[in-house]
Backbone:
């Protein structure tokens, strides 16, 4: 199971160790639930993906996976920019020191304020709506890409498919071509084309077809407008394993194939070689993150054993939203035989607040510490305060040191918003 955990994970003296620190030490010091991020894992993924796109390529972190200033700073140190899709995400990136060419600004409903910030920072936007070019030009935006939706259905959950016909994202080819024409007429520097087919992709099939169609679209722009794309932004969507039974291809290998496929597809159509941009999120921080929970009530019923934790769907809604599967390790009893099948339930007032349907644990008891791997992406980022439960803290660990990168919310924090 350790291959689901961060690169620094070890079992020492019967206990899970992350970044050189025992899980129990982290829980005692920072409380639970606690999100623990391994800096070594984040940096290794960042450098590998950067290498995958080559010296003329760029990698922009999909900030929505885990918007955090410290993580954005860390990634910037390793040469990554940020893909942001709201004023809030842009503020996180700016606080981390990013600007200009280090940013790509997304959103299917950008308002004048966000476009104005893009102009102020001299950051490129990704055009996603028919009237957005006019709004961007009026705001003073200088550079843009155009997002095209090419009708490829990815084999993933319907909530995270984005490249199909009828998607709320991007523009169909005819409208996208008109957007390129409009942008050029208004004096924008149109850098290239953008596509995103979906997230947590199980293989390269859908992306390969999308890349071929993207090259054909770029060729049609050349033929009809005399304009050639200098950038092919292939989006993100590379998956990770969340459960031992999952078989997910390595993100770096997929990134390398995506880049080479795009270069070949453009070359075969007589187009100049584009700079390849990628926007990964989950594969940068997903495996790097582990959640520590404290066990409370244990109920041994005839039907199943319930193990209740001090978090749940408020800090990780993915099982409820996508049917995501997770596993768990008894972090302070990691050398004991997992002899009991249990279900891990959250503390919220929903029967569906179940984090893990079935997992084998050493006979669970109140006070145990559970470690749930592969929780670094789309967990805290999608968290809520349901039932008035404050959001957890997050720490970054490396070499036996832990740094608080997100403070734990308190009930007083929740009350502060009330009037």
Residues:
């Amino acid at each position: 199971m350790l291959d689901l955990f961060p690169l620094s994970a070890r079992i020492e003296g019967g206990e899970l160790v992350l970044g050189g620190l025992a899980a129990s030490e982290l829980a005692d010091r920072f409380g639970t639930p606690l999100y623990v991020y391994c800096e070594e894992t984040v940096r290794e993924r960042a450098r590998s993906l950067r290498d995958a796109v080559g010296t003329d390529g760029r990698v922009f972190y999909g900030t929505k996976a885990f918007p955090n200033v410290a993580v954005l700073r860390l990634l910037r140190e390793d040469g990554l920019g940020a893909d942001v899709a709201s004023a809030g995400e842009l503020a996180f990136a700016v606080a981390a020191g990013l600007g200009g060419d280090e940013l790509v600004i997304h959103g299917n409903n950008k308002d004048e304020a966000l476009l104005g910030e893009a102009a102020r920072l001299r950051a490129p936007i990704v055009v996603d709506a028919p009237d957005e070019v006019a709004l961007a030009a009026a705001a003073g935006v200088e550079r843009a890409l155009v997002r095209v939706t090419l009708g490829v259905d990815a084999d993933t959950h319907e909530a995270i498919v984005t490249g199909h016909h009828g998607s709320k994202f991007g523009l169909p080819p005819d409208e996208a071509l008109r957007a390129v024409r409009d942008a050029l007429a208004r004096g924008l520097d149109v850098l290239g084309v953008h596509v995103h087919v979906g997230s947590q992709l199980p293989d390269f099939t859908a992306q390969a077809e999308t890349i071929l169609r993207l090259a054909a679209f770029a060729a049609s722009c050349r033929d009809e407008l005399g304009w050639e794309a200098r950038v092919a932004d292939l989006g993100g969507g590379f998956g990770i394993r969340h459960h031992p039974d999952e078989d997910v291809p390595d993100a770096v290998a997929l990134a390398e194939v995506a880049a080479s496929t795009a270069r070949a597809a453009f070359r075969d159509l007589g187009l100049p070689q584009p700079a390849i941009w990628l926007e990964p999120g989950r594969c940068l921080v997903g495996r790097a993150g582990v959640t520590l929970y404290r066990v409370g009530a244990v109920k041994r019923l005839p039907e199943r054993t319930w193990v209740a934790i001090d978090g749940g769907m408020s800090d990780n809604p993915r099982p409820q939203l996508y049917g995501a599967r997770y596993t768990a390790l008894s972090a302070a009893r990691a050398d004991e035989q997992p002899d009991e099948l249990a279900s891990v339930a959250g503390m919220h007032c929903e029967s569906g607040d179940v984090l893990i349907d079935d997992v084998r644990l050493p006979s669970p008891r109140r006070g145990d510490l559970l470690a749930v791997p592969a929780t670094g992406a789309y967990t805290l980022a999608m968290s809520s305060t349901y039932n008035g439960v404050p959001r957890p803290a997050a720490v970054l660990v490396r070499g036996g040191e832990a740094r608080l990168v997100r403070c734990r919310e308190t009930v007083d924090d929740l009350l502060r918003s009330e009037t």
User: Anything to note?
Assistant: The first strand starts at residue 10 and ends at 12. The radius of gyration is 22 Å. The longest helix spans residues 205-225.
